[in-house]
Amino acid sequence: MNWDDLRFFLAVARTGQILAASQRLGVNHATVARRIDSLEAGLNAKLLLRRPTGCSLTDAGVALLASAERIEAEMLAARGALGDRDIRLAGTVRVGAPDGFGTAFLAARLWRLTVDHPDLVIQLVPVPRSFSLSQREADVAITLERPAQGRLVSRKLTDYTLGLYASADYLEQQGRPRELRDLAAHRLVGHVEDLVYTKSLHYAGDVMPGWVASFEVSSALGQAEAVAAGAGIGILHGFVARREAALTRILPEIAIRRSYWLVTHESAAALAPVRHVAEGIVDLVRRERAAFGDDAPSLEGPPVEAGGRAGSQTKVPPR
Fold first, then answer.
1. Is residue 92, in this structure, part of any structural domain at all?
2. Hey, which residues does 93 pair with through a beta bridge?
3. Which of 3, 141, 216, 299 has its Cβ near the most Cβ atoms within 10 Å?
4. Rounded to an integer, what distance in angstroms lies between the CA atom of residue 281 and that of residue 112?
5. Does the pLDDT of residue 298 top 80, yes or no?
6. What positions does the domain HTH lysR-type occupy (predicted)?
C-alpha cells in the first residue's frame, strides 16, 4: 500500500464518484479506477461499492478512510513543521446543517471561503436530518446538540432564540393572542412529529402542553413560509423570521433557547481544507452574532472531545 493509492481512494471517498475524483486529481477516470483496483487487490478487501449513481464505502472502506485521513493529516503536519506554510487547499468539503441555519445563514456566506482557493469545493447540504461523520455523509456538521460519544470534536457556535410568530393578515382576521391560553383557539403550525430527528426540536410541548398543529411541515423554512402565508401561529427561529416582512412576533415573553454546535470527526479535524471551512464558519457566526438575537451570545470556545450534553432553555411565563 502506498500513499498515491491512498490519495486516489480519499478523492473517491470524498466526492462519491470516480469521475469527480478524476477531475479533482487531474487524471482520467480509468487511472482512478485502476488505482482503486490496485489498492483493493493489495489489501485483499472490497473498499467501494460502485454503482451507476456513484460510489459508497464498504465497512472495510470506512475503516481504511479513518486511517488514510490520519496519514494525510500527519503528512500535512510534517510539511508545516518543515516550513511549508503555503499548503494548497484542494478537494471537496461537505457541510451538513439544519435547513434553517444552512439556508437562511450559511448559503449566502459560506461560498466566500472558496474565493481565494480555486481548487477547493464546498458542498452545503441544508436538510433537516442527522449526518454520520464516520460514514462521510459530511466533513463538518452543524448540530443542535453536543455529541455525547464517538471520535468527534465539537465546539459551540452560538445560542439562538425561537419565538411565536404569525402573519399580519392572520392576526387581522383571527385576532392577536394576549396570553398563552389564547393559542388554543388558533390554528397552529408545527413539525411533523414522527420526522423530528433530534430531541431539541421537541419544543412545542414546552410552550403549551397539548399543542396540536393543524398544519405540519418537516422543515424550519417551510414552517416560516407557511406562517407568513397565513397558515396560523408557529414557533419559528428568530433569525429566520426576521427575514420575512410579513411576520410579526406575538407573546414576546415566550422565548425558547437552543444552540448550534460545529462537529468534525477527529480524523478529519486536522485536514487543512476541513480546518479552513470549520474555522471559517466559526468566524462567520462570530462576526454576525447579532443575527441570532440580542440575547443569544456567541459562545464558541476551543474544540472539545465528544461528551457531555448541550444545554437548552425554554422560558414560558406562568399560566
1. no
2. 122
3. 141
4. 10
5. no
6. 1-58
